[in-house]
Design goal:
The chain is mainly alpha-helical. Helices cover about 70% and strands about 10% of the residues. The chain has one domain (about 5-185).
């Protein structure tokens, strides 16, 4: 392996090995935020006649026996419902609006975190691609310098024999390398 290839491999390996970590981190953290929000919103938990677990912010249907109701809203929430009956209608109307705004804030923060993780991953991919292009450009320029130096160039044929390049082969190789330089050296 040549020095340029070794450096390129090392840098690319380092960059790519870090990229999945941030992606994995984002994929692990964001669902946890979602589940945390959903768990806070779901105050009721019950099992139906088929044994299926249900989670809701609404009470279970009337046909569910009390032994199958596994979780109910906490006592303070029930107290606030009784207290809200004595409050004015405008105060009662403002209470339900506070919960969605909390949820909306959490969802907005989650979206922002998702977008930041996507932006970071995209930036890292762009940096890795730019680094790869830079390395390819440098290698192509070095190959062109060697080819233009006038030294005898040897290729290995299908039988593993060393064959000295003639002028036509040099011209073809020069055209191939010029195409690489046009592609990678912007």
């Amino acid at each position: 392996m040549r020095l340029g290839e070794t450096i390129m491999h090392s840098i690319l390996h380092t960059t790519l090995s870090r990229m999945p970590r941030t992606t994995v981190l984002a994929l692990l953290v964001l669902p946890g935020l979602l589940l945390g929000s959903a768990a806070q919103a779901a105050q009721w938990k019950w099992r139906d006649a088929q044994g299926v677990m249900h989670y809701s912010d609404q009470p279970p249907p009337a046909n569910i026996p009390p032994r199958d109701i596994l979780q109910q809203p906490t006592q303070p929430a029930v107290t606030s419902v009784h207290a809200s009956a004595s409050q004015t209608p405008s105060a009662t109307a403002s209470k339900p609006q506070q919960a969605p705004s909390e949820l909306e804030k959490k969802m907005a923060a989650q979206k922002k975190a998702e977008q930041a993780a996507q932006d970071l991953a995209k930036q890292q991919q762009q940096q890795a691609a730019a680094l790869q292009n830079q390395q390819n450009c440098l290698q192509a320029q070095q190959q062109l310098q060697v080819l233009d130096s006038g030294q005898r160039m040897v290729q290995i044929d299908a039988q593993g024999q060393h064959v000295i390049m003639d002028d036509a082969q040099r011209a073809a190789e020069r055209a191939r390398i010029a195409g690489l330089i046009a592609q990678y050296c912007h």
